[in-house]
UniProtKB/TrEMBL annotation:
PANTHER family: CYCLOPROPANE-FATTY-ACYL-PHOSPHOLIPID SYNTHASE, FATTY ACID C-METHYL TRANSFERASE. InterPro entries: CFA/CMAS, Methyltransf_25, SAM-dependent_MTases_sf. This is Methyltransferase domain-containing protein. Residues 51-150 form the Methyltransferase domain. It comes from the Bacteria. Pfam families: Methyltransf_25. It comes from Candidatus Woesebacteria bacterium RIFCSPLOWO2_01_FULL_39_10b.
Length: 279
């Protein structure tokens, strides 16, 4: 079965390219980058839960779950380098947290956990790294190991339609007009968006083998009989709200906040997230 070579996820990638690396190197995951902090606000985690983080990377969400009160948190990743970094970070946490977490090198297509053994399963920015056939195998496993009253939290980015069409033909051109008008009248540089040709980094081109769209996610979730509204945050692309200009910019360029929900996020949502439950 095809997969992205785990050797592509080097230590250098995690410490100099993978989003949030600056905060990680300073705090070992204790402080989340703003993007990830916005995302975890949507996770309905409760104290006492047993949690599995698939594609845990450096381990930030594993530590976050333990700090939030989960009883047991297991982080798995098929990248040896990711697990090495996560096990290095664990040394900088108090014993109470260390006793709750465990990291393992595992392929999510071959999970050996007992049936209905997890209250919560996290998959944050993982689906886009998986070929379609891999997604099918993993969702079979998720259906088996998730408790009947549990949930799966999915976050995936980017929305293929957003990058291919909306960003190129709406966001960037409109942003260019707004920024030029502002800069002309204020004699300042508001800052334009990244050119569409640079919206995908070199690592994205290697690792993002299956960027989703709204309907591909809907089809996947329905196939395995999961319920959950597909929403968006646009946190990766939207400007931080530091002034009224930022709010106006995000409204015109990204249709915020309408683009947080369907049907607007089908094209204007840069990312997708869902809290999935069994039917």
């Amino acid at each position: 079965m095809k997969r992205v070579d785990p050797k592509a996820y080097t230590k250098k990638y995690y410490l100099s390219d993978c989003s949030g690396y600056k905060e990680y190197k300073k705090t070992w995951g204790k402080k989340l980058e703003p993007r990830l902090q916005r995302i975890v606000n949507e996770i309905p985690l409760k104290k006492g839960m047993r949690v599995l983080d698939i594609g845990c990377g450096r381990g930030e969400l594993v530590f976050w779950s333990a700090i939030k009160g989960a009883d047991v948190v297991i982080g798995i990743d098929y990248s040896k380098n990711a697990i090495i970094l996560a096990n290095e970070a664990i040394k900088y946490y108090p014993k109470k947290i260390r006793s709750k977490v465990k990291f393992k090198i595992r392929d999510a297509k071959k999970l050996k956990f007992h049936d209905k053994s997890f209250d919560a399963i996290l998959m944050v920015e993982v689906l886009e790294h998986l070929y379609k056939e891999e997604q099918m195998e993993i969702f079979k496993q998720l259906l088996r190991i998730l408790k009947d009253d549990g949930f799966i939290f999915i976050h995936t980015s980017p929305n293929k339609w957003f990058n291919n069409f909306t960003y190129k033909y709406w966001c960037y051109p409109i942003s260019t007009i707004l920024v030029n008008i502002n800069n002309f009248f204020t004699f300042s540089d508001y800052g334009n968006l990244v050119h569409p040709s640079k919206v995908r980094t070199d690592s994205h081109k290697i690792m993002h083998v299956n960027e989703p769209d709204y309907f591909s996610l809907k089809k996947l979730f329905n196939k395995f009989k999961f319920n959950g509204m597909i929403k968006s945050t646009n946190v990766t692309v939207a400007k931080p709200h530091l002034s009224w200009k930022d709010i106006l910019f995000n409204t015109i360029v990204y249709f915020n906040p309408l683009s947080f929900f369907p049907p607007f996020n089908i094209f204007w949502g840069n990312d997708f997230y869902a809290v999935l439950t069994k039917r």
